Every structure is written in structure tokens, then in C-alpha cells.
Amino acid sequence: MAKLLLLLASFSGFTGVALGAFAAHGLRSRLPENLLGAFQTGVQYQLWHTAALMGVALLLLRWPEATLFKSAGALLVLGMLLFSGSLYVMALTGVTKLGIITPFGGVAFLLGWLCLGIGVWRHL
């Protein structure tokens, strides 16, 4: 599981930087300010949670059977897909109704952080 999460973090870091550059250089003149802001928020949250995902994966190298760390990793990935993904699609398509998905990603992030915190409390 640790290897998978590290690979996902690497992919997420790569795509987060690429999407950030795309927003700064390719979208700035093409999107309204509110949609560009939504896209940039998606990038920020993706990159912050990429760093967290790497931390979770490193903890799993030490405690490979820690269910809470596995859950934290899965929830952080789900959060990135739902939160950042919905913001990207919304910004690029202009379909703002997709914003209804974003809070579900936020909840996944919160649950991931909660699992991480409880896991740390139990194992460290």
C-alpha cells in the first residue's frame, strides 16, 4: 500500500504542478476570474494533500498493517479526485452545478486527516 500511495503522490505532484502552470499561462486570459480562482484552489488543495499523502505513505512503511493510515491515504486520494477534480472540470466546462460534488471531497479530506491523527495517536 505504501508503494501505491507513493506512486499516486508522485503522479499527483506532477499533475498538480503541470495544472498550476497551465492555469497561470494558458487559462489566465481565457477564464473568468471566478473560474480561474476555482481552478487555482483545486491546484492548491491537490498539492497540499499530495504532501500529506507522501507522509501517510512513509508512515505505512513503518507500520504497514495500520488500517487508519491506509484509510487516511485512501480518503486523501478520494478527496483530491472529488474536490480538486470537480473544481477543474467546473472551471474548464463552465458547468458550475458540478460544484455540488466539491464538498464531498472536502469531507473526504477531513476524514483522511482525522484517520491520520488517530493513527498517529495510536502508533507514535
From TrEMBL:
<dbReference type="GO" id="GO:0005886">
    <property type="term" value="C:plasma membrane"/>
</dbReference>
<dbReference type="InterPro" id="IPR006696">
    <property type="entry name" value="DUF423"/>
</dbReference>
<feature type="transmembrane region" description="Helical">
    <location>
        <begin position="75"/>
        <end position="94"/>
    </location>
</feature>
<comment type="similarity">
    <text>Belongs to the UPF0382 family.</text>
</comment>
<protein>
    <submittedName>
        <fullName>DUF423 domain-containing protein</fullName>
    </submittedName>
</protein>
<keyword id="KW-0812">Transmembrane</keyword>
<keyword id="KW-0472">Membrane</keyword>
<feature type="transmembrane region" description="Helical">
    <location>
        <begin position="100"/>
        <end position="121"/>
    </location>
</feature>
<keyword id="KW-1133">Transmembrane helix</keyword>
<dbReference type="Pfam" id="PF04241">
    <property type="entry name" value="DUF423"/>
</dbReference>
<feature type="transmembrane region" description="Helical">
    <location>
        <begin position="47"/>
        <end position="63"/>
    </location>
</feature>
